[in-house]
Write a structure and sequence with these properties.
With about 230 residues, this protein is an alpha/beta fold. It folds into two domains: about 140 residues, Rossmann fold (3-Layer(aba) Sandwich); about 80 residues, SIR2/SIRT2 'Small Domain'. The protein is built from eight helices and nine strands. It has a six-stranded parallel sheet with strand order 3-2-1-7-8-9, with helices on both faces. It has a three-stranded antiparallel sheet with strand order 5-4-6. Helix 4 packs parallel to helix 8. The protein is globular and about 55 Å long. Its EC number is 2.3.1.286.
Length: about 230
């Protein structure tokens, strides 16, 4: 049997860094109409509004700092075989030291040109007039997977799950598919599943630890490393 840990992180792992969660009572989707700011149709109707929304989120991300949960996961990955998958579009895992993070929903610090299909690093604001550095066409959008679009790297994620000896979900609501189905896939293959979250999301996991990510994630990592 392999000794590979597959970890899925959601908004809860970055909440203590000042980045908003989505589906709790004060989450982002209670403040914005997702059909207007997080769908291809919303972007087609009002690209300026969508750019304003993601410009604000990008600036918020760049001003934020990794918290102890991000740092602990980087420490774990440096010493154990880990595949780190995130639903988050921030870069806090990378800034904490994690490498080869799988961003299944894209990244705030990347842009995608709809004219030439190039994707590129991008840390500035975007507008409907911003020219693509590759083809000069003003057709850049955030490189974010919106509702109705297919998440990135699904084949790579499936391969990781198949070789895992442990699946861990951290700070995720378990409501957005396909990520919400990863625990069922793991359980179907006989892979133990652990939840680290503010509160239980259901009975699908074999075990759970509950509380703020900045506390429970380092505690779990210390146990895993015997420190």
């Amino acid at each position: 049997m392999s000794n590979w840990i597959v970890i899925l992180t959601g908004a809860g792992v970055s909440a203590e860094s000042g980045l908003g969660t989505f589906r709790d009572k004060d989450g982002m989707w209670t403040k914005y109409d997702l059909s207007e700011v997080a769908t291809p149709e919303g972007y087609a109707r009002n690209p300026g509004l969508v750019h304003d929304f993601y410009n604000a989120r990008r600036r918020n991300c760049l001003d934020a700092s990794p918290n102890p949960a991000h740092a602990a996961l980087a420490t774990l990955a440096a010493q154990r075989s880990v595949t780190l998958i995130t639903q988050n579009v921030d870069d806090l895992h990378e800034r904490a030291g994690s490498r080869d993070v799988i961003h299944m929903h894209g990244e705030l610090t990347r842009a995608w040109c709809l004219a030439c299909d190039q994707r590129m690093d991008w840390r500035d604001d975007l507008t409907t007039e911003t020219p693509c550095p590759k083809c000069a066409t003003p057709a850049l959008r955030p490189d974010i997977v919106w509702f109705g679009e297919i998440p990135y790297h699904m084949e790579e994620i499936d391969m990781a799950l198949r070789q895992a000896s442990l699946f861990v979900a951290i700070g995720t609501s378990g409501e957005v598919y396909p990520a919400a189905g990863f625990v069922a896939e793991a359980r179907a293959m006989g892979i133990p599943a652990l939840e680290l979250n503010m509160e239980p999301t259901g009975g699908r996991f074999d075990d759970g630890r509950y509380g703020p990510a900045s506390r429970i994630v380092p505690d779990w990592v210390n146990e895993m490393l015997g420190t």
